[in-house]
Amino acid sequence: MQKSADTSAPEHNAGGGHQPVMLDQVIDLLLQSHPEQKSLTGTIVDGTTGAGGHSLALLKHLEPNGSLLCFDRDPAALTMASRRMGEDSRVTTIQSSYADLARHCAPETVSAALLDLGLSTDQLNSERGFAFRRDTPLDMRFDPAGSVTAAGIVNHYTIEKLRDIFFQYGEEPLSPRIARRIAEKRSEEKIETSSQLLAVIREAVPERFYTKTAARIFQALRIAVNDEIEHFENGLIAAWEALRIGGVLCVISYHSIEDRRMKRFVAEMVKGCTCPPQIPICVCGKVPTARKLTKSALRPTGKEMRLNPRSRSARLRAAMKIA
Ligand SMILES: C[S@@+](CC[C@H](N)C(=O)[O-])C[C@H]1O[C@@H](n2cnc3c(N)ncnc32)[C@H](O)[C@@H]1O
């Protein structure tokens, strides 16, 4: 594998803001879309631009006649990323979900695509309700024009729906208890802020579980508000269809639901014939369309985890389209 430039250099960090995760590994994997693994060519997609840390590095490796499409649902993220990238005719920013990739790229035209899931440090530090350590209104929308907010979910969804959200997206074992307590509280007073929600969680679970539970509930609400799993599943298909033969897709996920889905997606693409073993000749005609570039999920180095604790849960998987 060709070693890329040292992307731990300070210009890739948004001065105390979001630091791009597993940058060197991502660049090395995406460079495999180029036969000599020296530079990126053609159309490159950053599906989750955020603060633009990965985009900046992609630009550094992109040939002068290449183009970089920068997607994000959050217009504030795109504004920040554009500022950091400066005037560059190769860059197009698109305020949209990467799940809508097909509207912007014809099939088999993209050389490399990156999805770095979840939220950025800048969003976490904003007043938009993503962080449970800040007292802000319970919003959590990536796209401020979205119709669902965290307060909307907390105040209006049924107990059963809340329980399922906390259980599925937060893997929180005490989900039923928390959902019930929310329903009791909201009948007295609307739950509008992160501190109100935290007070309810504190009442619902033993103190020793409080911090972990709060983190899980906030994660679950964010995933539900932004319908992240649905976007991811549609986005994987869209990104795969957009890739040219030899193109590479990289996904960094931060929790097991998304990592499992990516793992399953790649396994499905790698698999050829699905005929039962007792049939002597293939009748399904299915051929492998992917080659795994990561045998199992790659993890950040110990050094990166120390320097950027938010990278600790990252898992990186990549595949090349071969047919
Ligand atoms: C972890 S951050 C990306 C950080 C970025 N790679 C960097 O180095 O600065 C994830 C970003 O993805 C965006 N996002 C989440 N879901 C999205 C989707 N379905 N389509 C486009 N952007 C999305 C979030 O708004 C956030 O800015």
Please trace the helix and strand order, writing H or E for each element.
HEHEHEEHHHHHHHEHEHE
Percent of residues in helical segments? 25-40%
CATH-defined architecture of the largest domain = 3-Layer(aba) Sandwich
Taken together, the total number of domains comes to 2
State mean pLDDT (0 to 100 scale). Answer: 93
Cofactors and ligands: S-adenosylmethionine
Radius of gyration: 21 Å
Count helical runs: 12
What's the overall geometry?
globular
Q: Quote the distance from N terminus to C terminus.
A: 22 Å
CATH-derived topology of the largest domain: Rossmann fold
Quick one: CATH superfamily of the largest domain? Vaccinia Virus protein VP39
Task: Give structural notes.
The protein is of the alpha/beta class and 323 residues long. The protein folds into two domains: 10-122 and 228-321, Vaccinia Virus protein VP39 (Rossmann fold, 3-Layer(aba) Sandwich); 149-225, Orthogonal Bundle (DNA polymerase, domain 1). The protein is 40% helix and 13% strand. It has twelve helices and seven strands. A seven-stranded mixed sheet has the order 3-2-1-4-5-7-6, with helices on both faces. Helix 6 (159-170) crosses helix 9 and helix 7 (175-188) packs across helix 8. The chain is globular. The relative contact order is 0.13. The model is unreliable at 1-15 (pLDDT under 50). The chain binds S-adenosylmethionine. S-adenosylmethionine (SAM) is lined by residues 18, 20, 47-48, 50-54, 71-74, 77, 97-99, 116, 118-120, 142, 228, 231, 235.
